[in-house]
Here is the input.
Amino acid sequence: MYKMLKVAFIGLGVMGYPMAGFLARAGHHVTVYNRTLSKAERWVSENEGVLAETPKQAAEGADVVFCCVGNDEDLRQVTVGSAGAFYGMKAGSVFVDHTTTSAEVARALYKEAKDKSFSFIDAPVSGGQAGAENGQLTIMCGGDQPVFETVFPVMECYARSIRLMGEVGSGQLTKMVNQICIAGVVQGLAEGLHFAKKAGLDGAAVVDVISKGAAQSWQMENRYQTMLEGHYDHGFAVDWMRKDLAICLDEAERTGTSLPLTALVDQFYKDVQNMKGGRWDTSSLLARLEAIAAI
Ligand code: NAP
Here is the structure.
């Protein structure tokens, strides 16, 4: 049994809001910060905890500060921007970032934190909105082992799997592998279902059969139904996926890695954005194929 801590959570979005709730229900003393104040007000009306008006104020006196905002720039703003959390962190505390960002920004903030006598762990998550709401996230971390060990039991309240992948940035690099793998799989599934429909097959029956064999995937099991129905108003947004794929392609450029399929699928997602599908689920690649077929 570990002692209850004073923690803060910055960014009460789709992911952060339920994650902060798990921390409060685990018995920690939680302070939340959200840019749009009304979300923080709603959170404190539904959970045990208090709200702060700036990231700096939220971080003051906290043992661990968690964060889940949008992208690199958002992370910079809430950490080293005006009234950023890094100006409120106490010596010996830990900043855990759950945002999906570049490895570069994680390395820069790790160094900045070290200079200010606290620690930084990059800890992007996988598992989507459902994983956050059910406390079943997969967390891939980068940073120093002793620091990781102190925050591991705290994160356990919203995770089913947590692993330190190596030095700072390794969590983000692992998340990039996750997104690279998903991109190809979703396009393959979209093409398979599109083909099945055009061939006059019953798409659901096809999936029932092939999902018991080598073609099975999380995307197939969890998305085939809504794809066949043409429903995309849920899940992980195309805009977020393009943000993530840009990070993957930038990193690949730096390391001289060839990612031809990832680059192609990224362009397909650009087409989906042009169809006004930026907020659609990533499985909307099927809508793109159907729109092309309809021309
Ligand atoms: P979201 O619902 O859009 O929430 C983003 C949060 O960040 C909001 O609280 C937003 O505040 C805050 N924020 C954004 N920019 C900010 C800034 N410049 N200053 C202060 N606060 C700022 O996003 P989400 O779905 O929770 O995703 C968060 C992160 O997790 C992203 O990096 C995403 O790629 C990653 N992720 C998401 C999923 C998923 O299924 N949604 C899965 C895995 C990973 P406001 O309320 O004021 O807008």
In short: The chain is about 55% helix and 15% strand.
